[in-house]
Write a structure and sequence with these properties.
By secondary structure, the chain is α/β, with parallel strands linked by helices. 41% of the residues lie in helices and 18% in strands. The protein has 35 helices and 34 strands. The strands form 6 sheets. Strands 1, 2, 3, 4, 5, 6 and 7 form a 7-stranded antiparallel β-sheet that branches. Strands 18-17-16-25-26-27-28 form a 7-stranded parallel β-sheet. Strands 19-20-21-22-23-24 form a 6-stranded antiparallel β-sheet. The relative contact order is 0.06.
Length: 1022
């Protein structure tokens, strides 16, 4: 690759950095050009200039002069531009170094203010300039500094010898080209120093292929591995470990399962043959049976050695169907059995190979988990109960000794396998405890620590099965599943920091040997086969998990109180949102109601026939599951209660369920039987109590096959029905429209047993007059762990809520929208003085206050008319008030209407007198029909709709005089009213279905990403 090509690829990215010349140091712009042929440590040219262009030209010319003297072409170019400089006294810098883990110093250093002698962060790391093997923190290494600077600058530099001397600590912005494309580099946080990965999972499979290739390249013709390297100076690790030979072969098999690469498989065959024929020895045990043992360095037998041999051979058999190693696996397992105390279940860890005598009873807890895991894998192949029995004895020993406190990944693998065959509470509990108190460590550990991802992935598989296990799911009640997945995603992303990207490998002595592998930063960037093994195994498991998540069906569910053709504002909003998702997003939601609506199926048909739904949706009440539960045998029929007189029967429109109400001797409602009409069997009973002539639900009775259940409330029953009937293979996205009836379900933390997301919509004000949260919203606003998102209808409410709840970042503003088609053209209004109000006849709408205010309007404009439309308990009382006050010719109290166009055409002004709202649809529809609006300036909605719109007038809440004056102003000024009408139509377009659909689409995408756990990792920018 020509240097000119690399420079041309990189320059546009550098120009985008938009770095101003830094007046704090003389050079202005400082650039580092690092170039490598892939075979040797990068050559670095440094350039300075008063402009970026001058610095670039100087650096490019210096590079070209150097390149003319080389015999090989460069393949990689990295350009770093200094963006921040800080002068530090040597003693102050030393203090910072003492607080920094070795090789985690993330700055460059200049020895001069003018940057004649400056070193990039990557140079410092790759040449061990702040590394001393005996120290755990960043420690200046003068010997390495002298050696490197002699080569780099042609003169020797030393670390300062006096505390008052200055060094200049700096950061950079960077770009890298490999000849095919240019990459912007991360410039801060834990991922700094290598390419930006906005969709990091796209690199997952390439990293798996690359790491598998690396391991395969390490297998020599003999089958033995190149054990590892210290890449700073390209030094081979001068020891060998047979256990890691076996475990790395196992990981290579896992990688080959993904890649199916022939070269890798040939390496696997060589490594397994060497393992089976050279590293494993057959011995005769005291009972006369044969056992195989892996003999490691020092002529010792490690419990874990036998285990990982079985794992490698079992994986080979699983992937190829070839059982050539099966007999040897049985002998290896016999060796493990020999190392177990049959009474206590405890394993010994190390034997002398010469005579099988005990060398060390305990060495490292890894061995215990490896042994039990291996025997479970062998049991999976052969179903020999002996191996399962050994594991169960061992696991009981692990539990007694509290092995879960070690948070070992091998134990996680083991218990995951064991619970597949023995799903017992104590094993599940062990598996949960093995990760429960370790999640903060997984989230905060500064090193990549690749076994943490293995720990999490094995635990994830167990937790997923536990979520589907009705018998043991309660064990998750006090386990933070959401935090678990957040930690899993964070650690998976963090492991990419340990990949040897070429933009980092180029600074080491022999880049081609290590590029595409994985390293351990704090061990001098060590690349050892078992290091790569753990990264690879973790990522292979994570890939499987992602593929599984991606294959899950996704279902959006609106959780409603009811779903009626002529329902309340929340129900209307739900219906419209159903239409939006179908029409604009191509998503067909389910609707589940907590209360029984026998006309629900007919309602959906009517909504479709009337055009309010573009397609039918699946709508059901929680009671609609009862016939299927009876047919499956989940519940038993109930006997009829006597005495009792049947007072009423309600049948659903599908003729499947009927509710038969019975009254007692005193004529009070006593109970209600839900009957499966095709079989005439009673499937559920609702019990009532009477208080002062009013019937109240006292319990819901259901008989399961193995127990009876009496639910204290309908919300408890609704939660139980969802838990029992929703399948565990689907990803459920719950949007809670009616919060109180679904309080029990949301509070049960269903994400502990379902793959799900939870969002609540706040349809009204969230606070009472005394400042306390309303009962409907209290549970979700106080407990930040319950919901993934909170939808509010106005920015004002979002702002107010952000002051009083935690987790405010979960909130999204998505207003109600208008149903198409919108008029959006000039609407011809009937001449007159007619005012319109559409609202439920209930106290918070303050109709009587409005009527009193309108009496003032009539005093000024005798021909003025107020027409109210709606339904509700106060309708008769309000109509009587009109009569009593002799306003029958001016105020007209109507019932419900759906002919909005006609009503608005006859109206010259609309009015809202409520004391509180969420986002009133009536106000929005008034604007859409070109009807100017006069409204109290209440929370929430009117201000969002009217402020700076010119479409109406806001008045002080509950001020009757101000309300009357505003109505008079609009009615008596036709020119002003005409302008308001025009403004209203224009302003309403902001709330069209298409406009609001973009907000819902963003939410839907967020929910899908959350369900697949892609974005649950938290970015640590500390």
């Amino acid at each position: 690759m020509s240097l000119s090509h690399l420079l041309a690829q990189t320059r546009p990215l550098v120009e985008q950095f938009n770095i101003a010349a830094d007046a704090s140091h003389v050079p202005g712009y400082v650039l580092f050009f690092s170039v490598s042929n892939g075979q040797e440590r990068a050559h670095i040219e440094q350039a300075r200039g008063d402009t970026l262009d001058n610095a670039w030209i100087a650096g490019a010319k210096a590079l070209q002069r150097w390149a003319q003297k080389q015999t090989t072409q460069p393949c990689w170019l990295r350009v770093d531009v200094v963006n921040h400089v800080e002068a530090l006294r040597w003693d102050a810098l030393q203090d910072k170094l003492r607080k920094t883990k070795r090789n985690y110093f993330r700055f460059g250093l200049s020895f001069t203010e003018t940057f004649e002698h400056a070193l990039l962060e990557q140079e410092i790391a790759a040449n061990a300039l702040l590394y001393v093997g005996t120290e755990g923190v960043a420690t200046p290494n003068d010997k390495n500094l002298v050696s490197y600077t002699r080569q780099r600058f042609g003169s020797e530099l030393h670390w300062p010898d006096a505390p008052e001397k200055n060094l200049w600590r700096f950061t950079t912005l960077g770009a890298f080209s490999d000849g095919n494309r240019a990459y912007p580099l991360e410039s801060g946080g834990p991922h700094s120093g290598y390419r930006q990965l906005p969709h990091w999972q796209d690199e997952l499979e390439p990293m798996i292929h690359s790491a598998s290739d690396y391991l395969a390249r390490q297998v020599k013709k003999s089958g033995r591995f190149n054990y590892g390297w210290f890449p700073c100076f390209d030094r081979a690790i001068p020891t060998y470990n047979a256990l890691r030979h076996a475990s790395s072969t196992y990981a290579l098999l896992e990688g080959w399962e993904v890649t199916q690469n022939d070269t890798q498989f040939a390496a696997i065959e060589r490594a397994l043959h060497d393992l089976a024929s050279e590293l494993i020895r057959t011995c005769t045990l005291p009972d006369g049976s044969d056992a195989d043992f892996l003999v490691d360095t020092g002529d010792e037998i490690k419990l874990g050695g036998n285990a990982v041999c079985i794992l490698a051979m079992a994986k080979y058999s699983e992937l190829t169907g070839n059982e050539r190693y099966l007999a040897q696996m049985e002998r290896l397992a016999n060796g493990i059995a020999f190392m177990q105390n049959a009474e206590s279940g405890a394993f010994v860890h190390v034997l002398h190979a010469a005579d099988l005598s005990l060398k060390e009873e305990q060495r490292i807890i890894y061995y215990d988990g490896e042994a039990a895991f291996a025997l479970m894998r062998l049991y999976g192949l052969t179903k020999n109960p002996r191996w399962l029995s050994i594991v169960e004895r061992a696991m009981d020993n692990f539990i007694a000794r509290k092995h879960w406190q070690a948070h070992d990944h091998w134990l996680s693998y083991c218990v995951n396998e064991l619970t597949r065959y023995r799903p017992q509470a104590r094993y599940y509990q062990f598996g949960l405890d093995n990760v429960r108190d370790h999640l903060d460590f997984v989230l905060k550990r500064v090193t990549t620590y690749p076994t943490l991802l293995e720990l999490m992935m094995a635990a994830q598989r167990m937790i997923e099965r536990l979520q589907a296990d009705d018998t043991h799911r309660h064990l998750l009640a006090d386990f933070d599943v959401d935090k678990f997945y957040r930690a899993l995603e964070y650690r998976a992303r963090y492991l990419a920091n340990g990949f040897f990207w070429p933009e980092l490998a180029m600074f080491f002595k022999n880049p081609q040997k290590i590029v595409g592998s994985f390293f351990i930063r704090h061990h001098s960037y060590r690349v050892r086969i078992d290091d790569v093994e753990h990264y690879l195994s973790g990522y292979v498991a994570y890939r499987k998990y992602r593929l599984q998540q991606a294959s899950r069906p996704q279902q959006l569910v609106f959780l409603c109180g009811n779903f009626r053709h002529e329902g309340n504002g929340i129900e209307i909003a739900s219906i419209r949102r159903c239409a939006l998702f179908i029409r604009q997003l191509g998503v067909s939601p389910w609707v589940i109601t907590s209360s029984w609506n026998p006309q629900l199926a007919r309602t959906v048909e009517a909504l479709y026939e009337s055009g309010k739904l573009p397609a039918p949706v699946k709508a059901l009440t929680v009671y609609d599951w009862l016939p299927a539960m009876l047919e499956r045998g989940d519940i038993l029929p109930m006997q009829e209660l006597r005495p009792g007189t049947r007072a009423q029967t309600r049948k659903d429109s599908r003729n499947i369920l009927a509710a038969r109400r019975y009254v007692g001797a005193e004529g009070n409602l006593s109970h209600e039987d839900f009957v499966h009409l095709p079989t005439q069997k009673i499937v559920l009973r609702r019990h009532y109590r009477s208080l002062k002539g009013t019937a109240y639900l006292s319990g819901i009775e259901l008989r399961f096959t193995d127990h009876e259940r009496l639910y204290a409330s309908e919300e408890e029953f609704a939660a139980a029905m969802l838990a029992h009937n929703l399948d565990r293979q689907t990803t459920w996205h719950f949007l809670v429209d009616k919060n109180l009836p679904w309080r029990e379900f949301v509070s049960s933390k269903p994400k502990n047993w379902l793959n799900a997301t939870l969002t609540s919509v706040i349809h009204s004000t969230h606070q009472r007059e005394d400042g306390e949260f309303k009962q409907a919203y209290r549970h979700v606003l106080r407990d930040a762990t319950l919901l993934d998102r909170i939808i509010v209808l106005t920015d004002a409410q979002k702002h107010n809520l952000a002051k009083v709840i935690s987790g405010a970042q979960r909130m999204r503003t998505i207003p109600n929208h208008l149903s198409p088609p919108l008029p959006l053209n000039a609407v011809t209004k009937t001449t007159g003085y007619r005012v319109l109000c559409m609202a439920r006849y209930s106290p918070e709408k303050q109709h009587q206050l409005l009527f009193r205010a309108f009496a003032r309007v009539v005093a000024s404009i005798p021909e003025a008319e107020l027409h109210t439309w709606g339904y509700g308990p106060l309708k008769t009382q309000l109509a009587q008030w009109v009569t009593d006050n002799h306003l029958e010719n001016n105020i007209f109290v109507h019932g419900l209407t759906h002919d909005l166009e006609s009503v608005h055409q006859q109206s010259n002004c609309a009015v809202l007198s409520s004391s509180l709202e969420g986002f009133p649809l009536f106000c929005l529809e008034s604007l859409a029909h070109g009807t100017p609006l006069v409204s109290f300036d209440i929370q929430y909605g009117p201000r969002d709709l009217l402020e700076n719109s010119g479409a109406g007038i806001l008045v002080k809440p509950n001020d009757e005089t101000a309300l009357a004056e505003a109505l008079i102003e609009v009615l008596q000024n036709p020119q002003q009213r005409a302008q308001m009408q025009e403004n209203a139509l224009r302003h309403a377009t902001r709330y069209s279905e298409q406009q609001v659909a973009t907000l819902w689409q963003t939410w839907w995408q967020e929910m899908q990403a959350l369900a697949s756990r892609e974005n649950k990792g938290v970015e640590n920018r500390a």
